[in-house]
Amino acid sequence: MTKRITAKEYDNRKKMREFRRMYYDPEVERQLDALRKSLNIFSESGTFESRQAIAEQIVNTKKERLKKVLDLKKIKEMKDGRKYIHIGTKLAAVTGSEMYTAPNEKLLIEKLYDAFFGSAKMTLKEAYKKYQRYRKDLGLVTYKTIAEDMYNWKKLETTHIAEMCVKDIRIRDIKMCYAELVKGGDMTERQLKNIRSTLNGIFTYCVSEMEIIPHNFILEIKLDMYRGRLKRRRPKLDYTLDEIKRLKQELSGSEDVYDLAVRFALTTFLRIGEIIALTPQDLMYSELEGYYLNVDKSRHVEREIVFDGKGNVVLGKTEHRVTDIVKGNSEMSQRGVPLSDEGVEIFQKAVMMHPENEYVFMHDGHVINTTIFNRHLRAACEKLNIPYRSSHQIRFTNAYRLYAGGVPLPELSRMMGHTTLTMTMHYLRQRRFTPEIAAEVRKILTA
């Protein structure tokens, strides 16, 4: 049976959330984290005096923060030598106790600090910030993962659990949170799963690193009950063969490097990052195989992960780099890919236009930009009254064309640079059928 909280408990929790919001100081938290790391290092190799000095500095830092909340001059001594302090009923509503005692003043300061600011009182919002800082400091994630978590947190921040203490959050609270998120009917199943993934990361961190909760129950909560309120994603339609032909024809007279790149993409099934990273030397020829591309590089977008003035992890400046790190499994992604006569013609034309360039598709001395590439593709689509789909949808389209044309699935998977056949099958989810299949179906159903 679910335990219901009393009105008094609810009021005390609300006061605690307001208090922590008012006195949250990320700079002090960072200072304390740095001092604790130093203390751990000196515990192994430092002198007794150096360890004592750092421990003293930690206590003094906590003292200064506590002075903003209560008058430490009220600390008194009992007959047996122990230290104690009465904090008053108002602050007791925040911490849960009116009187605190300890064998000495240092331990009393530790106890008071933990009562007001310690991990036992940490809200989900504060845990998220620490979780992001922890991953940034260890270099565990890419900017894309941080960006996804930031997007997911913006959603979570609007729910009631954001200001709750982590140790007070129960399964029912997470279920209510999900119900709040899907209430408007604008959230897809994928978005809800991504939010759950971010929550799972925070709770795992609170279990393994912070040790403020004993168990992470996030993945135990099934999302099936929310499916009725979720927004259904419409499957993205691939380009038709007729649309591909019309786009090629529309762009055939242009010598703009972006238009050439779009035309080239329409003849192959490479990732856009792989097309951008192609060099003149990547076009190979053999009498047995004909022309093919050596795909062993890709263009990546990198962004700095930095702290803002409030101690939050944010994304800094953007950097575009071409590296030999190809998406997916490196052994499978670095590969040879056959090229059609039309693709060879466009490739060679781009090279001859600027033979001095390091890369095939460059504009004003820089490799082409994905966003501008998609703008050119969109402009051509709008001119021909063709529904616009991004550059990645061209890869889906041509993968299906090859599969429908008889290319065996294992060979197609290898040429696409996929690690598993399951990933390749994801690209073949298109629902249209070929004229041959349509004729066969009619023949069978007519008999």
What are the main properties of this structure?
3-stranded antiparallel β-sheet; 3 domains; DNA polymerase, domain 1; elongated; 447 residues; hpI Integrase, Chain A; single chain; mainly alpha
Can you describe this structure?
With 447 residues, this protein is mainly alpha-helical. It has 3 domains: 7-120, no CATH class; 124-229, DNA polymerase, domain 1, CATH 1.10.150; 241-442, hpI Integrase, Chain A (Orthogonal Bundle), CATH 1.10.443. It has 19 helices and 10 strands. It has helices spanning 7-23, 26-45, 48-66, 89-95, 105-117, 124-138, 143-156, 171-182, 189-208, 241-251, 257-266, 272-276, 330-333, 341-353, 370-383, 391-404, 409-416, 421-427, 435-446; strands at 76-77, 83-86, 99-102, 283-286, 290-295, 298-307, 313-323, 335-338, 362-363, 366-367. The protein has a 3-stranded antiparallel beta sheet with strand order 1-2-3, covered by helices on one side. It has a 3-stranded antiparallel beta sheet with strand order 4-5-8. It has a two-stranded antiparallel sheet with strand order 6-7. A hairpin with a 3-residue loop joins strand 4 and strand 5 (290-295). Helix 7 crosses helix 9 (189-208).
